[in-house]
Design a protein that fits this description.
alpha/beta, five-stranded parallel beta sheet, 25 helices, 30% helix, 22% strand
């Protein structure tokens, strides 16, 4: 760069959190002439990182944002200590004086710690930075109990992190319910049910009186105002934030009565050379604590710095939020608290059994959506948030259950799609057209939509698909941004290329490191093709939650054990074994709707010993935890029943033993009825068989559940071998061509030509693949091996079956039961306390 073009303006940024990082990136993107030299001064020993995902640091995640380019000077481990506005310099903790032409204060916030007795005891922490988490993890080793003060977003994240470190965790919240800033009372109550179901005690509506020390002088107890005493060897405060405005106070800039650097809509302070953004800024009387508004402020200041004529202003922010909190979907959008006093009505649905709470707030004529809350099922969030302030595209009850889904092309242009980065529907459409984008990754790169919390990505894809369809361009069916292929295409790539691992697949045919969409999908593909045990090496890290322990996780942190009972037929000897196992391990026992016996209440460290006894008695995994064949239900058929015309029990057992362990895009269920009376309910299954005088009728693609579908009659009066051949081909064709998590019912409905086309493929061999499908099923049958037997024979696999990594022999102390109807059930947490 020549002397004449040397930058002549100096930008200093105090602080290097997410808002500061976004500001610098925005200035560098816009400053093509190199007008500004930039110096960033951050007091943490590392550069900016993603605070939204802070908890994942304990799981080994790399939170660092991409480094700035070489034109930016970043000084870490250094703090701005004062501002000389007259000289336009800042002083730092290293005794440097750094000159500026423009100064941006992005000092963020500090955790609020209530002034209670004992707040300074050893073992008391805040939850704000990576260093905080490292200190908590180190201190927690060898300790058993913990408590988090604060039931907001970060507080609940902290509580889960504490539990993940092996401590029995509880939450103390002064408000009457959890997440009071995002959820109404009903939503907070439902979230509490979920949190307590994970083994955490929740104390809401009661202030804290003091922290008390133990004999070693470190914190040992939390005392509440109502006299409740909680054991806690580790206490973490996450009770809100306070703006870091001390630099503004020190140089005479106005601050709010309750803190925050006062700025106008351009994020400029009283001093025209000084701006403030992020959690330290007070805009219009509000301090914003979400990342989206902070990013919007950064964009406004970048525009102002690069163009004196800029009219960019911060106009407030959409405070909608959606997240998966401890495995529970939670969402809030618009104004969830509006009531009759504001001319609003509430439409509420509650299902305490399923743990679902939904509430829509609408205008008094039920035509305008004002806001809402979703807990336990937030599938409709994208559509609902996009219509806040506008007309409802359907009846409120339809919107609650996703019955009316907004097409991407139907949304008004001003609709904010990504609240984190303030990206509108029109902004996405314009960028897609101007940049000729054809995939979600391109949209994310050019607009930043979906790059923060990610909750808007499904809606971004719908808008992209609508624009491509309108332009006559084929819509990509890529499974995610890491692969330009559908699940069916990935299946063929793995099969034809003999790919043996996810790493190999992503290196040869994808990009990046994968995500929670493609990893389980590829794991299923590898399992369908018989590429090793699902807990073998890299495969173990790809699996869905239940597959990690080959068991179904229950609400109190225990697991269920479901041995396979083909056709529901079981000998007295094996029945006795199940009874003895249930008795010896104190398990709850229930006959399932699929004619099996389910044993509940097993702790994770008990699973291997339980299964060792079951395997020795001849049982094998029932795959109740997997996307695989579950059961083939049957009646007793012609062997016993006077109405039976075929031996349905024998056929059910034959089918179950043939397809056991078959991994698929979704779970599979089947049934065989011995006559037209249909006692086994075969027509509600993925594949169902009903006996006739001349053989078997085959029904395909049915399911029960929330949206039941009757199976379609595929073929009639089939002989035994003919029936099995058609089922073989049906299952293999489904596994090869279905999308991830797509049941056979929706898969068949999506097939061009439907049932007639399917009949042409697996009966008439229209595609010439029947021999290949037959061979694939033959390989599955020949290579089947029981997953639990294999696990018990491998000491390395058995190492994962512990409640606490740092105390392998210690059972989870938060798990407790009471007796009801002569069997155990999870003990309510209020009783445990």
């Amino acid at each position: 760069m020549g002397a004449d073009s040397r930058p002549d303006k100096r930008l200093v940024v105090a602080g290097h959190g997410p808002a500061a990082h976004r500001l610098v990136e925005a200035v560098r993107e816009r400053d093509t002439a190199g007008t500004w030299t930039i110096t960033v001064i951050g007091e943490e020993p590392r550069t900016a990182y993603d605070r939204v995902a802070l908890t994942t640091h304990l799981e080994g995640a790399d939170l660092a944002y991409p480094a700035h380019d070489g034109a930016v000077t970043v000084r870490t481990g250094e703090r701005v200590t004062g501002i000389d506005r007259a000289a336009r310099t800042v002083a730092t903790s290293t005794r440097n004086a750094v000159p500026y032409d423009a100064l941006v204060l992005a000092t963020g916030s500090a955790p609020f710690v209530p002034p209670v007795q004992g707040r300074d005891l050893p073992g008391v922490f805040v939850y704000r930075t990576i260093d905080d988490l490292d200190a908590i993890r180190a201190y927690a080793r060898g300790r058993a109990t913990g408590a988090v003060v604060g039931g907001g977003l970060l507080g609940l994240e902290a509580a889960r992190a504490i539990q993940g470190l092996g401590l029995r965790s509880g939450v103390v919240e002064v408000a009457p319910w959890l997440m009071p800033r995002q959820l109404d009372e009903g939503g907070g109550a439902m979230l509490r049910r979920h949190i307590e179901g994970l083994g955490m005690a929740v104390h809401a509506g009661t202030p804290m009186r003091a922290l008390e020390a133990g004999e070693d002088g470190a914190v040992r107890r939390v005392v509440l105002e109502d006299g409740t005493v909680l054991d806690a060897e580790v206490v973490v405060f996450s009770a809100g934030i306070r703006p870091r405005d001390e630099l503004a106070r020190g140089c005479g800039l106005p601050v709010g009565e309750r803190g925050g650097i006062v700025v106008d809509a351009s994020c400029r302070t009283e001093d025209p050379a000084v701006f403030a953004i992020g959690e330290c800024a007070l805009v219009g009387g509000t301090v914003y604590g979400l990342v989206g508004p902070c990013f919007s402020m950064a964009e406004v200041v970048a525009d102002r710095l690069l163009s004196p004529a800029s009219t960019a202003v911060f106009e407030g922010a959409d405070m909608s939020t959606k997240l998966k909190l401890m495995g529970v979907d939670v969402a809030s959008f618009g104004d969830p608290f509006a009531g009759p006093e504001r001319g609003a009505l509430g439409v509420t649905y509650t299902d305490p059994v399923a743990g679902v709470y939904k509430r829509l707030v609408v205008s008094d004529d039920a035509r305008t959506l004002l806001g809402g809350v979703l807990v336990g099922d937030a599938e409709a969030y994208g559509t609902l948030r996009a219509h806040v302030g506008g007309g409802l595209p359907g009846a409120p009850e339809q919107m609650l259950f996703g019955g009316t889904e907004a097409a991407g092309g139907d949304l008004p242009g001003a609709t904010v799609i990504c609240s984190c980065n303030n990206v509108t529907a029109e902004g996405i459409r314009r960028t897609v057209a101007e940049c000729s984008l054809t995939d979600v990754a391109g949209v994310k790169d050019r607009t930043r939509a979906g790059t923060s919390c990610g909750s808007c990505v499904p809606l971004v894809k719908r808008i992209l698909d609508a624009e491509l369809t309108a332009a006559g361009i084929e819509v990509s069916k890529a499974i995610c941004e890491h692969f330009d292929y559908s699940r069916a295409e990935l299946f063929d790539i793995v099969r034809a290329g003999r790919v043996g691992s996810f790493t190999q697949l992503v290196q040869e045919h994808g990009t990046g490191r994968g995500c929670d969409i493609c990893k389980p999908a590829v794991a299923s593909i590898l399992a369908s093709l018989g590429n090793g045990h699902i807990l073998e090496g890299e495969q173990a890290a790809l699996q869905d939650t239940n597959d990690h322990f080959l068991a179904n996780l229950q609400k109190n942190g225990t697991y269920s054990v479901v041995p396979r009972v083909p056709g529901g037929e079981i000998t007295p000897e094996r029945l006795i074994v199940i009874g003895e196992v249930a008795r010896d391990f104190g398990l709850y026992t229930k006959i399932t709707g699929g004619q099996r016996i389910d044993l509940f209440g097993a702790r994770v460290e008990q699973l291997p010993e339980i299964w060792r006894r079951l395997v020795e008695a001849g049982f094998e995994s029932g795959h109740a935890y997997g996307k695989a064949l579950r059961t083939v239900k049957s009646c007793v058929g012609s062997t016993w029943c006077r109405y039976g015309v075929q031996d349905s029990a024998a056929m059910a057992i034959r089918l179950e033993l043939r397809y056991r362990g078959l991994r698929a895009p979704h779970k599979l269920k089947s049934a065989v009825s011995g006559c037209a009376r249909e006692c086994a309910e075969a027509q509600s299954k993925d594949f169902g068989v009903i006996a006739t005088e001349n053989g078997w009728n085959l029904y395909l693609a049915g399911n029960g559940g929330m949206r039941p579908r009757h199976a379609d009659l595929f073929a009639t009066d089939l002989a035994d071998d003919e029936l099995i051949t058609y089922i073989d081909r049906f299952l293999m064709f489904y596994i090869r061509t279905a999308d991830r998590l797509q049941r056979t019912a929706s898969w068949l409905e999506s097939l061009d030509g439907g049932l007639d086309y399917l009949r042409e493929v697996i009966v008439d061999d229209r595609l010439g693949i029947c021999a290949d499908l037959d061979a694939a099923m033959a390989r599955h049958v020949a290579s089947y091996s029981d997953e639990w037997r294999d696990t018990l024979e491998d000491p390395e696999r058995l190492r994962r079956f512990v409640s606490f990594v740092n105390a392998p022999q210690t059972p989870d102390p938060s798990i407790a039961f009471e007796v009801e109807r002569d069997q155990i059930k999870p003990l309510p947490l209020e009783v445990k306390r």
